[in-house]
Amino acid sequence: MTPSGPTAYDVAHHYDDAYFGDLADRYSRRTRFARTRMRNVLSLLPDPAGLVIVDLGCGMGTFTIEAARRGGRVVGIDAAPAALAAARRVAAGERVPGARFVRADAARLPIARGVADLVLAADLIEHLDDDTLARVLAEARNALRRPGLLVLYTPERAHLFERLRRTGILRDADPSHIGLRSAGELGRAVEHAGFEVVSVRFLPSHLPVWSFLEHAFSRWVPLLRRRIGLIARVEDL
After folding, report:
1. I need a labelling partner for 206 at 20 to 30 A (CA). Which of 76, 115, 162, 229 fits?
2. Structural domains in the chain plus CATH codes
3. Are 119 and 188 in contact (CB under 8 A)?
4. The whole model's pTM is what?
């Protein structure tokens, strides 16, 4: 990604009914991919019960639904109409009426200042160019009451699979992943936006054997850092 490269808005057409339908099907069937993704992200969150949570780039609604199921007051935000259609369909199928969804741009949130206890962005950051990321982080900061938490979950640029995709050896690269970053790069962006980074964890993929290696050795081996789980807080007024 370069400053003159594509923006988040240039790749928005990638998120269509088929894109969200596939994710919804994985979630509904609780595939290994879906179970691992849920386990990874939920491990980063405090108990959602009673918390006001904003789920940015909610897609087909996994974490809006899961946090609402656990007692959170949650609103999922996504700019794609196909995402919200899938999310509402899945929430109804899961019988979680407390999951609410709003169509909006995460860089221009229709949310009052200081209303949220937690802002989550799971599998959103990799779709954002640097300028859009900065605006999204600023909006998240404005939405949070003090103290408040920001939780980010995104692929790590250093992982072997991502390196192989950049060389063309692996040919399954997602063209919308214009903002793959290292944990260090992401941490600096978050701090620049006025947050304090509390913790950074490396979370495993859903693939057998690989997940064991990633869980056991990612702390020391960048090639095994599949996913970044970053928790930050904002406390100043």
Report:
1. 76
2. 12-234 (3.40.50.150)
3. no
4. 0.95
| 8 A C-beta contact, residue 161 and residue 102 | no
Q: Cα separation of 204 and 154, whole Å?
A: 11
Crossing angle, helix 32-42 and helix 62-69, to 10 degrees?
Answer: 60
pLDDT digit string (tens) for 114-126? Answer: 999 999 999 999 9
pLDDT band of 237, cuts 50, 70, 90: low
Buried b (16+ CB within 10 A) or exposed e, 46-79: eebeebbbbbbbbbbbbbbbbbbbbebbbbbbbb
Other C-beta atoms closer than 10 Å to the C-beta of 10 total 12
